[in-house]
């Protein structure tokens, strides 16, 4: 039973879709992470080629490479500070680095005992804090004015994914643990649960612009769960299948199952995207449980997605995600960075019936 029906089929004149824009000079290896500045249309892109690239996106979707800086290993995550003048990245070199776009300098600001899988900026009433989640089974909080972390939190397992909507922070780890933090008390988990999905957690993403706080979880087994934090809202929890294909065109068996690689919530409307190893992207409305849009399948997995600050641009990466291991890394595998101009009807919530 799919909770998300097909997109509404109201008769409307066929309009040729405006083509998504391909960004020139993309990274030379798989793209791991995307983040737009909260101040302007600057896009930070982390890659397995050890570099972070910054692009400026113009009004017509044209882009210009602005800066690049390096880690000593693959970059796994990128984010911006609130002012939008600093980019922070985490990598397989166990380091968190900060790049100041005003002077072009990059400095190390965080350190773990294993690769840093996620970096997130947390804007608290007392100022900005950097949260880093690592495969060393810790989260560390950093005040960038001091060299040492202000706090270190032990996780039950390696950090695979983390997201923040202050005061909510959610971490997904190995072995399907989900830890929920109330950042007014950042050192202790408010709640620890096992993922409602039976398979490995790939991504957690917090609701934006939602009456009740919660998050979405995506797994390697083509499934997404919508989870509310408070017990009183738990009747609204549900999960649905996505990013699956039929073995043969007429089989209708959905037996080919793909990982959900990323989930991005729209900053204004609270709708969200999912993308997968099957090369597809969908936009969804969790409240009416409907699919709003399906993109044409790309020629490779979609590894990462993000909306810009006002939700008018949706960026996505077509990159090998190692979902088929070494054998899937064929020569000439596409590695593209794409920009999609969002139309209202694709991202606005549907009225409740």
Explained architecture:
The chain has one helix and 30 strands. It has 353 residues and is mostly beta strands. The N terminus is likely disordered.
Structural class: mainly beta
Q: How far apart are the termini?
A: 19 Å
Number of helices: 1
CATH homologous superfamily grouping of the largest domain: YVTN repeat-like/Quinoprotein amine dehydrogenase
- What would you say the CATH architecture of the largest domain is? 7 Propeller
Question: What summary fits the major beta sheet?
Answer: 4 strands, antiparallel
Calculate Rg over CA atoms. 19 Å
Q: How many separate structural domains?
A: 2
Which band does the percent of strand residues land in? over 45%
| Share in helix | under 10%
Low-confidence stretches: 1-16
Side-by-side strand order of the widest sheet = 1-30-29-28
What is the overall shape? globular
Task: Identify the CATH class of the largest domain.
Answer: Mainly Beta
- What do we call the CATH topology of the largest domain? Methylamine Dehydrogenase, Chain H
